[in-house]
Design brief:
Radius of gyration of chain A: 22 Å
Radius of gyration of chain B: 22 Å
CATH class of one domain in chain B: Mainly Alpha
Distance between the termini of chain B: 28 Å
Order of helices and strands of chain A: HHHHHHHHHHHH
Number of strands of chain A: 0
CATH architecture of one domain in chain B: Orthogonal Bundle
Distance between the termini of chain A: 38 Å
Structural class of chain B: mainly alpha
CATH topology of one domain in chain B: MetI-like fold
Helix content of chain A: over 70%
CATH superfamily of chain A: MetI-like
CATH topology of chain A: MetI-like fold
Number of strands of chain B: 2
Oligomer: heterodimer
Largest interface: A-B, 79 and 93 residues
Number of helices of chain B: 12
Number of helices of chain A: 12
Mean pLDDT of chain B: 85
Largest sheet of chain A: none
Strand content of chain B: under 5%
Shape of chain B: globular
CATH architecture of chain A: Orthogonal Bundle
Amino acid sequence: METRGVRIFMRVTSVLVLAFLYVPLAVIFLYAFNSTVGQKWPPSALTTHWFGVAWRNTEVREALFTSVRAALGATVIALGLGSLAAFAVHRFKFFGREALSFVLVLPIALPGIITGLALNSAISSSGLSFSLLTIIVGHATFCVVVVYNNVIARLRRTPGSLVEASMDLGADGWQTFRYVIWPNLATALVAGGLLAFALSFDEVVVTIFTAGPQITLPIWIFNNLLRPTRLPQVNVVAMVVVLASFVPVYLAVRLTREPAPGRFPAEVVPKPQEQLAVASAAV
Amino acid sequence: MVYLAALAILLVSAFWRLDPLSFSVVHRLGLTNFQILWRESVYRKIAVRTVGISAGVTITDVLLAFPLAYYAARLAGSRLKAAILLSVTLPLWSSYLVRIYAWRLILDRQGLVNWTLHKLHLASVDISFTNWAIWIAFTYLWLPFVFFPIYASLERIPGSFLEASSDMGAKWPMTLRRVILPLALPGIVAGSIFSFSLTLGDYITPTTVGNTQFIGNVVYNNVLGVASNQPFGAAFALVPVAVMAIYLLAARRVGAFEAL
């Protein structure tokens, strides 16, 4: 068993590691209120001035709308394809079932540059022009798996006896879906959608390869990192982007938490399991 | 399907080459790109740097993630455990670019790090735009990805194993070495796969907080940037893929895949 010294060491290290995770985000949040254009620690005075400047900047607003549209589009496609795939894999045995799960996780498991490159060469060789639509399709490739994971985890947790009981009591297929499966599934879909939205809203690598001249919020940050006079606005946008992922992810964790207290939902930390699934299949 | 086709085209195009006179892509299979990669010392240097920093980042991440995972899995109460897991999940999903940018602000000559050192009456450091900055930023980026597999493997060790070990007279360091680490090894290797492969494939961090090139930068420049030699970019992109394949084979030997 751990001695007192070991316990104290583990606790202190844990606090330091958590601080390491959050100090950089805190610095961004504080700098968003920095009154000066030069970014120097500590900020000499705080102001909300740059929020107004960023909002009035039409480039930023355009980028925000593009990001929201792209994320909504990708989320809708992901919800459709992801839940259909989950239903199919859960309910039926068919040729290529294992392969389907594998293909779904591939885009999220490979490094972004490979996914981006592949989509880029596919789009340019197919003669399509780069537009909002290509961003949406690009994002959808890695968002589908997030919805798929959430829905299939919930389906597996829903006892088959519930469906049988409903059928035995005389409900037809539609009624069973409407009154038994759907209420069970709804929060998983919402959680999957929220995670897909957060993932798409933040994404930069695949976006660079699929956007063409379109500018999303992360691309705007990337393009303005090297312009010292733009940094105050970059800080504001950076803070908004972080919050835009924290809120949906927090909600998704709440929605997927199992009734037993303290159980943490595995489906909100998808990447590890997925990368391993791909890796083990590849070797 | 579209995605698979896209990947296939990428793979095949690595064996095409660019005609030096017309700058058009010659759609004939050959090893020209790989010969250039091998001959030019600059590309070898970039490859070695990329793999070296990836390894350094991986070791640091494991060292940082292990105590936190151990604390969450074995020592924390259920509420605290849930809070720790949530606070590692949130950065995992939050913007990758913003998290890199934060380190630019912190490591700046007039940033938080130097201010703190100054307050402690220590000499200031000037590591922004160096390999050190790249190493710190990567370590920060992938820490949550390394944490979860290690946590999962530690959580799965039955408490009775540790009790048995201590009943038989083993002190904690002995238990750690002979019981905990062997059982957690698959999780540690699984976590290291993420930090290693994600660093290998990255091209934004090296130029945002550092001033050197990674394999990803060369790939990017050849496909979207000024160099515009798509086949060569695709060929260089296969190098990290090959390195990962070797790493994964090694990881399978220690059972990293059965662990999760």
